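Lay summary

Proteins are chains of building blocks that fold into shapes. Our project writes down both the chain and a compact code for its shape. Here are two examples, one after the other.
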Amino acid sequence: MPPITDLVVFALALAAAGVVSGLLAGIFGIGGGAILVPVFYQVFGYLDVPEAVRMHLSIGTSIAIIVPTSLRSFTSHRKRGAVDIDLLKGWIVALPLGAILASVIAAMISSVGLRLIFVVISLGVAARMLFNQPHWRLGNDLPPNPWKWIAGVVIGTLSGLMGIGGGVLNNTFMTMYGRPIHQAVATSSGVGVLISIPGIFGYIWAGWGAAGLPPLSTGFINWIAVALIIPIALVVTPYGVKMAHAMSKRHLEMGFGIFLLFVGARFLYSIYG
């Protein structure tokens, strides 16, 4: 067991991650999972959580934290009238279905496989955001069903495999079809709610009875980390929302792209470093 001073340091690191994830939830409409998953991976590794379940535990715990941060972000954005409620209603089955599929896949995939999924999606979306051109569009409005519904399932599945709230992918999806980045960010907060709630139950099921999990874990969710981060993230999320509405479209895209590059590089290092 690590010395108490080291545990305090890591508790402070988790608290700092809570601040960052809360701001990100507000600024980008995401649940903050893209920063929490790498932090959890390091902390759980230091606590000697086996490699076989460490990434799974990191993702499941992140999903649990996304529920309240996404709800807080969604209510703040909705008050400003920026959320596409019709799109969320159309995805009320598709997104949870994708999240459940993700937990089934996570129960069968390796830690390295999960990290590679994280890297590929993060770097792909980062390239699109950083080098975005006006003609990089698939259409002037969202596609009709069944394509829009299928997109919801895909977003739910990939987000569930990354431990994120879907903002990373939904922001890309909506902007590629001509929607303003601010509307995409606001709507993504609702996407996070629809993915994370079923995701909690999925990751509890996927990790039920797994060996090597730390104390106070239910399946692939560690409630100590959840309890440390949620209160902090809830306090700072509304400040992130204010920042998002004060920033220009290009500033949002550039900030989002740089952030995703950092995340992708971090996980590449964890695999090959």
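And here is the second example, written the same way.
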Amino acid sequence: MPIRIPSNLPAQDVLSSENIFCMDEKRATQQDIRPLEVGILNLMPNKIETEVQLLRLLSNTPLQINVDLIRIDNQVSKHTSEQHMNAFYHAFSDVAHKRYDGLIITGAPLAHLAYKDVKYWPQMTQMMDWARRHVQSTLFLCWAAHAAMFHFYGKQRYLREDKLCGVYEHEVLHPKNELVRGFDSLFFAPHSRYGVISESDYETVDGLKVIARSEETGAYVVASDDKRMVFITGHPEYDPETLQQEYTRDLNAGLNPSIPINYFPQDNPTAPPLVRWRSHGNLLFTNWLNYFVYQTTPFDLEQLNKS
């Protein structure tokens, strides 16, 4: 089944070229089913790149999904045209009345800022609180996962001296959890971050469970028992070249970055990256949509947390 996205969104051409089924609003109105309503709060600088990555993963299910792209504030984006933002993004105030089956909050390049120094932290906390009342299941990615742990549970991250960057092997701790259904016992996933929250901090929160972890990266997949919140500390949505682009950017900026771990064959940055995370990335999003969203959400979204 397709994802429903705004007409003329640039991502549509990319996804169509990959034989991914998308439909615009006009065609979707002719479908006599109740689609899932999913919002994406996109905090990443390159909005279009992140849109493509996430929409690609959301499309890999038999469910029809209506997608709303949401912006945190009205600040001009440095890497995405205001024309694009005005055409395809909703201000939070315009969708605050809605209820969603699922919400994705992306990461953001804010590693060295204290949460309360982030210029949109008040809006961020407002939206996270809103999601607890208006969204069946919220998926927090990378920085957003740490921000949510701090906001809801007071768990502070610490910053590594060196950047955790590369593709790391992880182990599944709870294979019967639906979020990792179909996963291999060991699997790979990309990370690109300085922040770390210790596994013990996750484990001391009642109702949270570390589902997958790595010796190098710590907790990777964490979820609440009620399926309302999912914390992903890495980037399963990354394209094959994303870490390469980040490495080249930091190299050109004179930051002397380390070569991403387990990414280039023989650690040779001139060689094409070795891609070994995409199947589990797709499965993770498919499982979230199916078991944490579709199987648990009310048919009438107005009944969601009406109290």
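What can we say about the second shape? Residues 3-240+277-303 form a domain with the Rossmann fold fold (CATH 3.40.50.880).
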